[in-house]
Amino acid sequence: MPVWQRINEEIDNPNFVLVCVAEDTGGEAVAGPIFDAANPTYVQVVDEDHIISSAFDFVNVPSAVWIDEQGRIVRIDEGTYSQIHEFSVGDEKIVFGNDVYAAALKDWVRQGAKSRHVQSKSTVASHMRNYSFEQLKADAAFRLGNFFRLHGHNDKTDEYWEMARSLNPDSINFIRQHLTLTEEGSAGKTFRALAASYERDGKDYYRPLDIVV
To answer: CA nearest 179: which of 166, 194, 168?
Structure first.
């Protein structure tokens, strides 16, 4: 969050609006302190039911869309990191993220429709994953699980969250949200093993960015 605050200040354009969304069933109690620590001047939204991820069919965070003055999506991407991140867990060194997305965003704000990073209509359409009926049912099950969790029915929460994961197994959002309620958290051993399995199987964790800066 602090990095996006810096980027927002560097862009410093009144016609640009940065909206940052926290996808977390913990709501304001969990996401609020993270936003507050960044002392942000951009718009912050807490999305407890992952409605925005459902609308754009994002399978994980961070992901982003660029929307122009006419309300048209001119770029849609996954893996939209603000910078390269590096940290250690025991003897394990973990590096993730990229340093090209923020530069591309700045170019779009400067150049508008002339930016080479604006995607064609066909590319935008192809980058929006097909949304199946099973995924719609998964979203409904996920939100039912959230409802039961809110009212203290943890057995029902687990039942409907597992249903959501089985109906939409490609949604890492569902998996990581469930992991936030465990001691290891959403980026712990289980998640790292999942990421490693994607790499081992030659499966894209995110759709590769087509950005060259």
So the answer is: 194
pTM of the predicted model as reported, rounded to 2 decimal places: 0.85
Contact of 42 with 9, CB cutoff 8 Å: no
Residue 111: closest CA among 68, 64, 63, 73? 68
Confidence of residue 142 (pLDDT cuts 50, 70, 90): very high
What one-character-per-residue DSSP string does 153-165 give?
Answer: -HHHHHHHHHHHH
Neighbours of 172 (CB within 10 A): 21
φ/ψ of residue 139, rounded to 5: -60, -45
Q: Average of pLDDT values for 20-36?
A: 87
Query: How do beta strands 92-97 and 84-89 pair?
Result: antiparallel
Residue range 178-206: mean pLDDT, rounded: 82
